[in-house]
Amino acid sequence: MSGIHNMDSKPGRLAVACDAVLRWIVFASVSLAVLVGPWLFGAWEAWWFWPIVAAISVGFAATGVRLGLARSTRVIVSARVWWILAALTPFVVYAVIRMFMADVFMDAQRSVLLHVTAICVAGEILFGLNATQRRLLFWLLFANLLLLGVYGLVNHVGWQSERVLWEPGYAQYAGRATGPYFCPDHFAGAMELLLCLALGLLASRGGATAVRWLAGLAALAATVGVVLTQSRGGGMTVIVIFMFAMVWCVAQWPAAIRWNLRLIGVSASLLLFMGLCLTGSDFVNRFVSYGGWGSAAGSHVDAEQGKLAHVVEALQRTSRGRMYGGAVRAWKSAPWFGIGPGMHQHLWPHFAPTPDGDPELRIWPTLHNYDFRSYEVHSDWLQLLEEYGVVGMILFLFAFGVVMRCFAVGVRDEGRKWQQVSRNRVDPLTFSCWVGGALSAVAMAFHSLGDFNLQMPGTVWVFSAILAIAVGQEGCSVVQEARAADGVRG
After folding, report:
1. What is the pLDDT of residues 97-151, one digit of tens each?
2. How many Å separate Cα 97 from the centre of its chain?
3. Is the CB of residue 29 less than 8 Å from the CB of residue 124?
């Protein structure tokens, strides 16, 4: 191969040393984002967000230098990666253009950076690390999420989550587990990612027994963590995760056995669900009392239509209902291109009231909404539509569809290998990564319907790393170092 130096020569040894230094710079950059970021309250505040963005930028630059100096390296990019990059590019270009058109540049920049830094983290994992470092990062990420869960459980059982790390928690979340996040819903989102990785490890038929036990404990801790957060969205997301697990986690088994396993899984899930409902816990009570549903069900209104109208009206008056209404009104003001990235909080005072008021006639709107400020819509999908418009939503949905298809195909292909290839040649972790990544994508997509987990930078970076590690696993490698004459890897 042209361009390969003899590793015994001084230039060859220098190239290998330089490449190793660059790779570990990238590893440190990614680790700061995905391992430390969640412990800094999700890197939500500006003084945590921007330093980590700077570190990600350093890692991205080091990745570029590594590829630029890689004379003794042959870079092979899989078709899946090309498809994902091609699908993401139109939305990113559109988002950057809309950023420069926004009225408040800093908030628009932060909104776009949530997407851009996620892609940068994924690119650094794919192109800046080797296979060994990616595997190490997976185990560190899994251990870190498990540690997050243990901290959240201990903090809640021992101190009722009165403090979030070294800061006092919000009184409105009293009695709910929060972990290192101020909002329990965001802690539930982190535990959902842990549950997805744990199910992926449990699903692999070639995994070690010790790994299975650890994954089982992690799945239990994640599920208990979600229950203790009392997050309605988290509870429903766990159900959705187990539903898709019945599809993907059994992909390594023959068809007949797959359906038996699914039947067992569905039966066990129903029993657990009924047991939870019968406990009458605070978690269950939060479900049945939300939006006036409990009062409507127990009222003396005979007509079902009357009960439905009561529930709809009550839902519209909840904090989420009012935020959703304001976001829809803002979107209707600019349906095609949106109001601009990060602009929801700035236009909230204008669109928060219902449009039935009349200042000239001194008629107050039905919902005035001057008593609270909405920084986020509490629905990532609705906020995406509001701020980026129909055009942005279509571009994002196209990219999301390509990613989901790649992961569904990846799970299928790795599942077939167990039957078609010698088992000692099948890497157990590869299948686990594909399953964990696919379940994570489903979990974040579903929970984002009613919450804003993907507005939390720490969660975004962890999610991006989970997907990138799966795509970069052996069998679907992105960067493969070519062996030099003496067999030393570059």
Report:
1. 999 998 898 899 999 999 999 999 999 999 888 888 999 999 999 999 999 999 9
2. 25
3. yes
Residue 73: count of CB within 10 angstroms of its CB:
20
Could you tell me the CA-to-CA distances from 95 to 18, 179, 340, 434, 464 in Å, in that order? 35, 32, 9, 28, 18
pTM of the model: 0.88
At CA 36, angle to CA 480 and CA 142, rounded to 5? 60
Alpha-carbon distance of 261 to 249, in angstroms, equals: 10
Q: Which helix or strand (DSSP H or E) is residue 21 part of? A: helix 10-31
Q: Could you give the CA distance from residue 476 to residue 478 in angstroms, rounded to a whole number? A: 7
464, 121 contact by CB (below 8 A): yes
Residue 384 burial (CB count, 10 A): 21
Q: What is the rounded distance in angstroms from the CA atom of residue 29 to the CA atom of residue 121? A: 9
